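Chapter review: from sequence to fold.
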Amino acid sequence: MMRPAVVAALLLAGCVPPQAAPGGPTYLGVRTSLLDGDLVNFNVALTGAATPDAVEKYAQCAAAQYALIRGYSFARLVRTNVTEEGGTWGADAVYTISSDLPRGLATIDAVVTVADCGTSGIPTV
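The token string follows.
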């Protein structure tokens, strides 16, 4: 039996097939890198979106799920770089994760965000 941390690492490493929400974008996967302690980099990509908002939300969903997997309750956006090439949107986002509500304006409650992502059809891994 695989340990939950190993399974989570494989999923967050982008070892999942592309997922498509009905009538929406096709989510191409998430690649996660721990930068330092509580600082995490998320690279996500998708097709079928008209604006960069969808890829930014996809990164946020991945960050929220990652925080929960690691036993934390919150994440705070540090920065997001968005690109678009040939209809594929990409986001290179950095978040901090923490057990307590972090300071700053761009904070997310991981439980609430993951639930919202599920309702919206956005995969979290």
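Two observations follow directly from the output. The chain has one domain: 28-116. Residues 1-17 have pLDDT under 50 and may be disordered.
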